[in-house]
Automatic annotation (TrEMBL):
One of its GO terms (biological process) is transmembrane transport. Residues 40-114, 134-208 form the TonB C-terminal domain. This is TonB C-terminal domain-containing protein. Transmembrane segments: none annotated. GO terms for cellular component: plasma membrane protein complex. It comes from the Bacteria.
């Protein structure tokens, strides 16, 4: 049987938002990144290719959850709510006193950064937050189909895709990528602060991590 499935679309990597811990000693509660959700990048900032910072002050309970959070400043108002949402819902490593967890208060800085490609206003951006996930087609899984696909679409000034083309080695995988791209949403390219039609390019890689079939008897 197929024990694992890997699907790697490289086209929609989002801007990176990171919560920075200003102090790493045990006297101050710290975000437990392994148990916290990803920071949502504000769509309005993504559309403008804008980076920034949002700061939040929180009271942290001994069990590692925020009991009260309030905005403490931002480089732009668009970053206030995403930073507040992240800090409020994050899990924390509580501050310690003589090895015992205790309540504390701290300020969290959430830094929003774009990838180098996303900073280019002359290229369309994939709107990952408002688009469906790419699905590995069952027919391709049954045939152990895998491969890489190059795809291109023309994105109009409204962010609508047209004339999408996918070039790969398997028709089922090509069809899955075309369905994905045609049903997605985009931020249009910009020129002189006005949206313009431009080409969006993406690379996809489909692979099954373990394609050994198992009928239950070790065969």
């Amino acid at each position: 049987m197929y024990r694992a499935l890997w699907l790697l679309p490289f086209c929609w990597m989002l801007g990176v938002a990171q919560a920075h811990d200003d102090d790493s000693n045990d006297d101050i509660a710290r975000i437990d990144h392994a148990r916290s959700h990803t920071v949502p990048y504000p769509p309005a900032a993504l559309e403008r290719r804008q980076e920034g910072v949002g700061s939040v002050e929180c009271d942290i309970a001994a069990e590692g959850r925020a009991t009260r959070c309030a905005p403490a400043g931002a480089s732009d108002p668009v970053f206030v709510q995403p930073a507040l949402l992240y800090a409020s819902e994050a899990r924390y490593l509580p501050s310690l006193e003589d090895g015992v967890a205790k309540p504390s208060h701290r300020t969290i800085r959430v830094v929003f950064r774009l990838t180098p490609v996303q900073k280019r206003i002359d290229l369309p951006l994939f709107d990952h937050w408002h688009s469906h996930r790419l699905v590995y087609p069952k027919a391709a899984i049954d045939r152990d189909a895998r491969g890489s696909i190059e795809a291109h679409c023309t994105i109009d000034v409204q962010g609508v895709p047209h004339d999408c083309v996918a070039t790969g080695s398997d028709s089922d995988l090509d069809a899955a990528v075309l369905t994905y791209l045609n049903g997605a949403r985009y931020y249009p390219a910009m020129q002189n602060e006005q949206p313009v039609s431009a080409t969006y390019s993406a690379h996809f890689s489909f692979a099954l991590a373990n394609s050994t079939r198992d009928d239950g008897f070790g065969n």
